[in-house]
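@channel sequence for tomorrow's demo:
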Amino acid sequence: MPQKNRVILIHGLHQTPWIMKKLARRLQSEGFDTHQYGYRSLRDGIKVNSARLNEWLEQNHHPDEAIDLVGHSLGGLIIRDFVAHYSKWQIGHCVTLGTPHIGSVCADYIWRLTPAIVGRSYIDALDGTVAPLPNHVTLGVIAGNYPYGLGQVFLQYHNRKLRKQGILSLSDACAHDGTVYVSETKVEGASDHIVLPVSHTGMLVNQKVAEQTCYFLEHGQFNHELLDE
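structure tokens (generated this afternoon):
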């Protein structure tokens, strides 16, 4: 059996590497070697954090060996910045979980009201200005549509405002995971995109999310047959 790539797991805003532990264990049970990359999501911007990921790899990984990347929320944007600016690394497959690829309405509200809550991760990341996805990167996107989380207050308000303006009429356009709209997770150039009934943080401990992540890392696409079960 060929050796599987090392998988770098990247947490989201206000989180620590520990939150990726259950997913890491699932990947390890499937034969993957994993590393939970930690970074300062408030004090440092996305470019600093992707640069530090590059530094960690230079010290701990050989560039001739491919790596896979899995990022939750803001972690997925760090992946985007990293693959766009550090081309010497061989990138196998990438998966993002609840990542607002085109920017975050929730983060926009928080930035205007209390910018310290999103810190330096807003500029060049949550504001929707991350570098485009390179053509050579195989990216799978998992979104959630179970609307439970701290951000739902802002998103419910935003939905009501859009309905009053006559802009929002389809229920699918309102779908979110409690923090990120499903529509915000879509990115041009992605290889596959699926929606699961999970919340923004709940997806990190969900078995189906773990199964689909493993499947994509091995096959470069999600198992759509499982979605009907």
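heads up for whoever presents: The chain has a mean pLDDT of 91.
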